Here is the input.
Amino acid sequence: MAYFIIRRIFWAVFLFLVATIISYIIFFIIPADPAEIAAGPHATAQIVAHIRKSLHLDLPFYQQYWLFLWNMIRHQSLGYSYRNGTSVRFIIGQDAPVTASLVFGGAFFWLILSIPVGILSALRPRSILDRLSMVFVLVGISTPVVWIGLIFAYVFGYKLGWTPIATYCNFFPSHQTGVCSGPINWAYHLILPWMTFMLIFSALYVRLIRASVMETMSEDYVRTARAKGASGARVLFKHVLRNSMLPVVTILGMDLGLALGGAVFTETVFNLNGLGQALVGAATQDDLPVVVGIVVFATISVIVFNFIVDVTYAWLDPRIRLTT
Amino acid sequence: MALLEVTDLSTRFRTDDGVVKAVSGVTFAVDRGKTLGIVGESGSGKSVTFLTVMGLVDPRHADVTGSVRFDGAEILGASTSRLRNIRGARIGMIFQDPMTSLNPVKRIGWQLEEAVLLHNDVTRAEARRRAIEILEEVEIPRADSRVEDYPHQFSGGMRQRVMIAMALINQPEVLIADEPTTALDVTTQAQILRLMKQLQDEHGTAIVMITHDLGVIAELADDVAVMYGGRIVEEAKVNDLFAKPEMPYTWGLLGSLPRVNATAERLEQIPGQPPSLLRPPPGCAFNPRCAYAFDRCREELPELLPVPGKTEHHFRCHLDDAERDRLWAAKQAALAEAEGSAA
Here is the structure.
C-alpha cells in the first residue's frame, strides 16, 4: 500500500511539472507582450518597462517558471492575473463550482440514462430498442456540442419558455435581494446544460456499456451461473453487472477529471462563467498566470479522479486488490 | 428405463452465413451410477448436445428438435422455471476451463452458497456449512478459511475441484462433465478423475464425460459414444470399442494415441480438418478424410447399425463386414510389428 501511494505521488508530481512546463513553453513561443496588455492602450514605454520588471517578465523563462513554483510552494499562491491583478486562486475558487456543478450534474444524468439503455440493448441485440439506441448513439456522437446546446436553448428556452437560456445561480442561498441563488434556482438554470451533457456523453456510454455487458454475458462464469439454475435477472444483477462496470469506471474517471478542467463549449453556449470560459478568455489575452492556474487545477483533478478510479477498481475487482 | 434418455436430438443454429447443423439426430441413454463417455474432436457437437439437454442454448438463435427425458419426464422445451429447478439441483455441470468458469469478483463461499440457496430453503449459515463440507469432500485443505478466498487465489486444479464441488453440492442424479481435465496438467488430471470416480461410488451419480481424451474414457466410462460432424458414428461398451472399433474414424482416434513401446517416430494422424457444420459434405461426414471412402460414402449417409451378433455396439460405415475385419486386422498387425521391433 505504501509503495502504491509513493508511486502515485511521484507520478502526480511528474504529471504536474510536465503540464505546467508545457503551458509556460507555449506562452514563450507566442509573440505577445503581456506587459503591454497589463499597462493598457495609452501607457508610455516607460510604464510598460516598469510593469515588465514588476511582473518579472524580463527574466528568462526558466527563472519565471522557478518563481511560479516557489510562490506556489512557499505562499500557496498561483500568482495574479496580468490583466486585472486578481488573484488566480480567487478566480478558480469562483469558477470551479460552476464547472463542477455542470460536470457532476451532467454525469448523474448521463449515467441514469445510459446504464439502463446500454444494458437493455445488450440483453436484446437487434431488438427495436437496440436499433433505436444505436441511432441515438450515432446522432449523439456525430453532433457538435455547440449545435445541440443552441438547439436546446432555442427550443426549450426560447420557443417553449420552459427553462432559462443562460447564466448560473449559486447553489447556496444568498441574503442579498435580487441575486439568483438557492438549490432550486441552481438546478433550474442548469437543466439545459445538463441535458446537453447527457445527450453527448450518454451516446458514448450507451455504446460502451452495451459492448461491456455483451462481452460479460458470453463469459464462462455466466454459463456456470445459469447451469446452477440462477434466473436471468439474478445472473444479470449478481454476476454480470459488477464485472461489466469495470471499463465504465475507467472511462468515467478520465472524463470527469478532464471535464473539470473546463467544459468550454457547453459553458460558452449557456454563458456559464466556469473554468472553460475563464481559460479561453485568459488564453486569448495572453494571461499566463490564469492559464497556468487552471492547468494546475485540471491536472490535480485528473490525478484525484485517477486515484478514485483505482480505489473503485480495487473495490469492484478483488484480483487487483492491493496486498498490504 | 434410463435416468436420462435423449432421442433423435438435433440442434441447428441460425447464423448470418446460414444454418449450422451442430447436432443431428443424436440418441443415447445414461443409467444411474453409470458413466457414459462422449468422444470427439473440437466442433463435433459434443458440448452443444449437452448445452441443449440443459436448455442452455439461446432459443433466439437455435432450433431444437427431438426428445430429452429426465427421470421419465420430457424436459426439452420445458418452462424456464422448471428447467431452473433441474439445473444445478438434479443435473450438475462442470465445464472445461476452470480458470474462467468461476466468477472472478465473488468469493468461493458465496458461489457455492448460491448453488445451495437457489434450490434449498435453508439459511445462509446452513448453506455455508454445506459449502465447507463439500470443499472438504473434494479435498480442499483448510476449507473453512478458503471459502473466504476469491477464485484467483486458487490454482487451476483447485478451481476445478471447486467447480466439481459446486456441481455436486446439491447431490445431483446426473453430472455432466464437459472436458473437465483438458485444461489441467497430467497429475492433476488423474487426481480429478479419481475424485469423480470416488464421488460416483459414494452417491450413485450418473456421469456423462465429454472428452477428446480416450485415456479418460478407458479409465472412467462404462459406455462410449464417438461423435463426428454432429452425429454419433459409433457407440459401444467401452471394452468392445477398444477391442474392436468398427468405424475408420474411431480407428484414427485410437491410432493417434501415443504408445510407450512403439518405435514409430510419428504418431498416426487423421488427415484433413473436421467438417464444416455449415456446409457438411454429402454422404458420410467423414468421407473427405477417410482412406477407405468409395462412391457410396460420398452420396449416402450410412445408418447407425448394430455390429452383427452384438446388440450394444452400433456404427455408421458403408464398408462391408469382411472388408472392415480385414482392414482392422492389417492395422493391428502393423501395430504389433512396431511394438515387436521395439521390444
